[in-house]
Design brief:
The complex is a heterodimer of chains A (206) and B (221). Chain A contains seven helices and nine strands. Chain A has 206 residues and is of the alpha/beta class. Chain A starts with 6 loop residues before the first strand and ends with a strand. The chains are: A alpha/beta (206), B mainly alpha (221). At the A-B interface, helix 2, strand 6 and helix 3 of A face helix 1 and helix 5 of B.
Chain lengths: 206, 221
């Protein structure tokens, strides 16, 4: 396994003042692998995901993607990692289509997003400003950006929040397709059963 | 380059859809400039003496107001971290954001200055130099304020602390800017202070984005 590992965590530890969130965390993730982060509220799931994305620094230990530290990746490697947190990263004053076009442009992707919007049932609101969308629709738009990024590694923080049952099923289906297609996904969730698939790695932070 | 264009167009579009917010710094500028003639004795020679200085200080303060929220809105809705994570180089995206905000906030402000110069009885012949000095000072000013905004991106209300951080650094702009305008009012050659303003602009635009990008990264973590 380890020779195929792309995302490696070594001796990861996070302390918040006197309190230890987690320590001595070790993992190797390679293609076609899904990791589920579980743990109570405040157990450090979001913190860990941000560290994996290179947005935060651990108190101790290292995270590497293809052998290089995630905070010092070259542009091509950075384009392989997508992170979707609690925030939707939508500009409220731009339409859904404008938001997606911007996202595709900074990620250097050219493909159209009509198909993704259709799949997410967002095609009828594509030209509506993001401020008029419901919380669930905003979450769907954020997922559209994830799909458009074309990244190999998905880091998702509770991706099914605010979604209806159909939306949740779609996220699970996308994740499964992504992982089967050679991708890697790390998902923080309170419903690990939803995502469970063969060979999924459970990382329990509590 | 496409990332620069994408960020620039996005920020311009967002600004124009919230155009009422763009007017705040302009109105602030007009009010500050109008208060001075009311507070001072309105003899025209005295007004002209303080006028140049007042215009420059008011411009610095309004630009502080205009660029304070440069990164905070993006940080609040999560788009800043997506820009940070994207393969587009952060120095380029930062430069695009600063350019967009300078275009929509500083440019209208600079257009207002000659109008306000009239209230201080500054001669018409000095207006081209005043405008040139302001245009040359604008890039440096934008970069400095953007740096302050980047350093305070994680704070809820950064306004006053940005002022404390940035205003002392704007002293060279104030000195060379008012000097150029004063020289021109007296009909003397103005090349030296204008060239120095240009040199500062070149320095700010080339090195500033590196510092701003680093500050944004620290602020997001």
């Amino acid at each position: 396994m380890s020779d195929r590992a792309l995302l490696c965590g070594r001796e990861l530890a996070v302390w918040r003042g006197e309190r230890c969130l987690f320590e001595a965390l070790h993992f190797d993730l390679g293609p076609e692998q899904l990791a589920l982060l579980v743990g109570a509220n405040g157990s450090g799931k979001t913190t860990l995901l941000r560290i994996l994305a290179g947005l935060g620094l651990p108190t101790g230990g290292t995270v590497t993607w293809k052998g290089a530290s995630v905070t010092e990746l070259a542009a091509e490697e950075r384009a392989e990692i997508a992170y979707r947190g609690h925030l939707d990263a939508l500009k409220r004053d731009l339409t859904v289509a404008e938001n997606l076009a911007f996202h595709s442009a900074i990620w250097g992707r050219e493909q159209g997003f009509e198909r993704v919007l259709e799949e997410l049932k967002l095609d009828h609101v594509a030209h509506m400003r993001a401020r008029y969308l419901s919380a669930g629709q905003r979450r769907r738009a954020a997922l559209a950006m994830l799909q458009l990024s074309g990244a190999k590694l998905w880091l998702l923080d509770e991706p099914t929040t605010n979604l209806d049952s159909e939306g949740r099923a779609l996220v699970v289906e996308w994740t499964r397709r992504h992982v089967m297609g050679g991708g890697i996904a790390v998902i923080a969730t309170h419903q690990p059963d939803e995502f469970s698939m063969r060979g999924a790695l459970m990382i329990d932070l509590s | 380059m496409s990332a620069f264009k994408a960020v620039l167009l996005r920020d311009l579009r967002v600004s124009f859809r919230r155009w009422s917010e763009l007017a705040h710094p302009l109105i602030f500028f007009v009010i500050v400039v109008t208060l001075f003639p009311l507070a001072l004795s309105p003899t025209s020679s005295q007004l002209r003496e303080v006028g140049v200085g007042v215009l420059w200080v008011a411009t610095l303060l309004s630009s502080l107001l205009a660029l304070d929220g440069l990164f905070r809105a993006d940080a609040d809705d999560g788009s800043l971290e997506q820009i940070l994570l994207s393969p587009a180089p952060m120095t380029i995206t930062v430069l695009a954001k600063v350019t967009a905000h300078a275009l929509v906030t500083l440019l209208p402000l600079i257009c207002l200055v000659p109008l306000s110069a009239y209230t201080f009885n500054i001669p018409l012949a000095a207006l081209p130099t005043l405008a040139a000095a302001l245009l040359l000072a604008a890039p440096t000013l934008s970069v400095l304020v953007a740096l302050g905004a980047a350093l305070t991106v994680s704070l809820r209300r950064g306004g006053s602390i940005v002022g404390l951080l940035v205003l002392p650094l704007t002293a060279p702009l104030l000195i060379f800017g008012t000097r150029a305008t004063d020289l021109s009012v007296n009909g003397e050659p103005t090349a030296a202070p204008l060239l120095l303003l240009g040199a500062l602009a070149a320095l700010a635009v080339s090195l500033g984005p590196l510092a701003i990008a680093a500050a944004v990264k620290v602020g997001i973590e």
